[in-house]
Amino acid sequence: MSDVTSIMNRIDSYRDKMVHLQIDLTAIPALAPDSGGTGEYDKAEFLIATLRAMGFQDVQRYDAPDSRVPSGIRPNIVATVPGKSGKAVWIMTHLDIVPPGERTFWSADPYQAYEKDGKVFGRGTEDNQQDLVASLFAAKAFLDEGIAPEYTIRLAFVADEETGSDYGMTWLLNHAPDLFKPTDLYVIPDFGSGDGSKIEIAEKSLLWVCFKTIGKQCHGSRPDIGNNAFRAASYLVTELDKIRTNFDRRDPLFEPSESTFEPTRKDANVPNINTIPGEDVFCMDCRVLPEYPLTDVLAAMRQAADYIEKTFGVTIEISPVQSAQAPPPTGENAAVVMNLRRAIEAVYGISATPIGIGGGTVAACLRRKLLPAAVWCRIGETAHQPDEHCLIDNMVGNAKVYARLFWGPAVTVE
């Protein structure tokens, strides 16, 4: 039996342990304070104890200060298994989750994970615990088999991915820069497809904006003495829809290929029907092709708002909530992409294609530092949904892909 085969068989033997770890992790919600939670501290402490019990000797914690959480910190973890070469393969997953939303839409308690029909159900089981667990057991296979990988294994478990990464990957890159080498391979399993055939190498720029329209409140029977902010804001929505014509290029690398400008959140104004609202707030989620500066998008929004102000006699305030200009993409022939494609083909027998996406991942943080990152996993795409779940076969299969990466570039398809 070859060493590669023994590693793959070892990963197969972990199937039940992977499920049990999923259940244990789900029972420790890690919600950011922005989402009404207390952060990742408890989950990080449990994970560190688990890593050490599994035989990981080099486990380091990097704490980002945050006075909003009871622990005062947002922990980030890096576990290392030495390899033969000076290069490292990173698998970067996140500790935090999103809230479960309306509980009545769930079949069971979202924090009490359970196995059914080859799946593990619970909040966080797919996003991002599926590949957190997969990466951990991929590395453990080398420890248990007593085999040194070609590449040094580095597993990063970061905070704050769901709410901006200021206390997670961004903080880690700024406060522990010596960890990250340009020759390392960085894989972020936070986007994927059902068959694992897509590798994300580029992201659109991200712009979240809120618009506050200020008019004059009055009684519903006397609109003549007020100024309906809701009406003006409604016209503003349609006026903003026209700005897409200023940013109408398409890039087939991305799905969808065009920039998108979508009104999303609508805040409540007056609580009763017979009052003309004097204030109205709505927000937009914009995913813009990297070639367009976000400053140009904001200027176009301001122009549309100025027109509505003059037309309706209102005041409009524009407040960006998030604004992240996309960094340069990872090259299609970058070492991380080529090695990842080879590993995916070895395990799943498919040829993966590089693409761009509209969503944001921590890969953007790495690319801004000119570190070549690829985003991939085989996934069922139930993240952020009620009854979120992961396929156990994906968890085990993805672990094998990561093990192939750790093994090194000389791996061939068996």
Alpha-carbon distance between the two ends: 12 Å
- Secondary-structure element sequence? HHHEEEEEHEHEEEEHEEEEHEHEHEEH
Number of strands: 18
What would the average pLDDT be, to the nearest integer?
A: 95
Q: What is the CA-based Rg, rounded?
A: 24 Å
Helical amount among residues, as a percent range? 25-40%
* Low-pLDDT segments, ≥5 res: 410-414
Major β-sheet, in short? Answer: 6 strands, mixed
Helix- and strand-based class?
alpha/beta
Shape designation: elongated
Strand order of the largest sheet: 1-2-6-3-7-17
Number of helices: 10
Report the β-strand fraction as a percent range.
15-25%
Structure described in brief:
By secondary structure, the protein is an alpha/beta fold. The protein has ten helices and 18 strands. The C terminus is likely disordered.
How is this fold's topology laid out?
Elements: H1 3-13, H2 15-26, H3 41-53, E1 58-65, E2 73-81, E3 88-94, E4 114-116, E5 119-121, H4 129-145, E6 152-158, H5 169-175, E7 185-188, E8 198-203, E9 205-214, E10 218-219, H6 229-241, E11 254-255, E12 260-266, E13 275-276, E14 279-288, H7 294-312, E15 315-324, H8 335-348, E16 353-357, H9 363-368, E17 373-375, E18 389-391, H10 392-407
Parallel strand pairs: 3-6, 3-7, 7-17, 8-16, 11-16
Antiparallel strand pairs: 1-2, 2-6, 4-5, 5-18, 9-14, 9-15, 10-13, 12-14
Helix pairs in contact: 1-4, 1-10, 2-4, 4-10, 6-7, 8-10
